[in-house]
Design a protein that fits this description.
This protein is of the alpha/beta class. It is built from eight helices and seven strands; from the N terminus they run βααβαβαβαββαααβ. The protein is globular, with a radius of gyration of 17 Å. The protein binds zinc ion (ZN).
Length: 233
């Protein structure tokens, strides 16, 4: 199976679903990480054009640790809109990834970029199947199942499915630590120790799932998106 995880910013995937991606890899599935925006606004000192390059390298290093392919869309951070051009770019991205399962932000998440990405994933996974919507790559054969990942600190999000990430928690944190520019930024801008944050969140979801560390998800319920199998690890 091919698994596509789409995050708005470099490091969203690491915080919210990297454990699950690592588990998919352990089970032999192919994983594609797509980062929609370049995260260029996440620094007090570095200018956007400088940070953008650093964050691309950090995202690539993290994807390498996971054994995942990285698709870097390079849309300006905080300025992603659901317009024609962006929708077409998402359709092409989905066609390149050819996923059976897609993981992305839940539609009510806290950040507007997350909400826009969630909507773009919803529409582009359908439109990628349409033969007369032309992009570089050929249309996909079928609609993928979509899972919404947790929100930061689980705010306003009630998972319906869990993945045991206990065996890979240290690797998940190692992926986050590839984003050194953000480890510092999150401390200075948001007063968050991100390593501690990831452990506490994993432990909290683990309490519901009956394991030490877990990640929580909700499957998109819509016509054509159902499944008779469990597709999460
Ligand atoms: Zn984000």
């Amino acid at each position: 199976m091919r698994v596509l995880a789409v995050g708005a910013h470099p490091d969203d995937i690491e915080i919210l679903c990297a454990g699950t991606l690592l588990r998919y890899r352990q089970e032999g599935h192919e994983v594609v990480i797509c980062v929609a925006t370049n995260g260029e606004q996440g620094h007090f000192v570095l200018k956007p054009e400088e940070l953008r390059e650093i964050r691309h390298q950090e995202a690539q290093a993290s994807a390498n640790l996971c054994g995942a392919e990285l698709i870097w869309m390079d849309i300006p951070d905080e300025f992603i809109y659901h317009d024609h051009e962006t929708r077409m770019a998402f359709i092409e991205m989905v066609r390149k990834a050819r996923p059976g399962v897609v993981i992305t932000h839940n539609p009510e998440d806290y950040h507007m970029d997350h909400r826009v990405v969630s909507e773009l994933v919803f529409v582009s996974t359908f439109m990628a199947t349409l033969p007369h919507v032309e992009t570089k790559s050929p249309p996909t054969a079928r609609l993928p199942v979509i899972y919404y990942m947790d929100s930061l600190a689980g705010a306003q999000f009630i998972p319906t499915e869990y993945v045991d990430i206990t065996p890979v928690i240290e690797q998940k944190i190692a992926m986050m630590e590839c984003h050194q520019s953000q480890v510092r930024w999150l401390k200075e801008h948001d007063n968050i120790d991100i390593t501690d944050f990831i452990r506490v969140m994993g432990r909290f979801r683990g309490l519901s799932a009956g394991v030490m560390y877990a990640e929580g998800f909700r499957r998109l319920e819509a016509w054509g998106r159902g499944t008779v199998k469990r597709l999460l690890p």
